[in-house]
Amino acid sequence: FGSGAGYAASGTATAYNGVPTVNKADASVTWHNIGTSSLNITADGVYYVTGSTTTNQITVAANVTAGIYLKNATIDLRSQTGKSPILLNNGSNVSLELMGTSYVYGGPAGNGSNGIHGSGAAGGVNAVAGGVGAGAGVSVPSGAKLHVEGTGMLYAYGGDAGDGGNADTTGAGVADIMNTGGGGGGGAGAGIGGVG
After folding, report:
1. Is the CB of residue 162 less than 8 Å from the CB of residue 152?
2. Which residues are registered as beta bridge partners of 158?
3. pTM (2 decimals)?
4. pLDDT tens, position by position, 58-73
């Protein structure tokens, strides 16, 4: 939904792909506290998530169909380079049910590496690494499906782009010096959509 963009979502609860999406009373279900640990969803089913974290994430494995209730949760990975708070994989089929107000912040992109100093014909010809892309607030790769439903709100923010590396200028102007430019910084992540 736009590189580096924030995205606010809301919707109306419905049944989805055979996964019941009826609101449950708190006493009738077990809520996963995302502040305690990451939630790795590897089997079809309905999951309930609340709490706050700056390190953990929700991951849905490939080809898994899941209903995820998200209630007043904050997953802020702005200190975690390239990570997405909610990460779908190829073939994931997810109904995200919103209860209350939740916030997700993708991790920033990595910075590009600085250029390399070289000497002579073989010097300075190695490519330098670019930065890893930023995380999306909700990462939905090609081949995955996401439905946002429920009576709550979700504010999703992609991570910021990284800085490019500095070119190596050691010995600039000398005929047999071959230096490299800096690597590009990683791109910004979407609020909901692709990584940088």
Report:
1. no
2. none
3. 0.70
4. 999 999 999 999 999 9
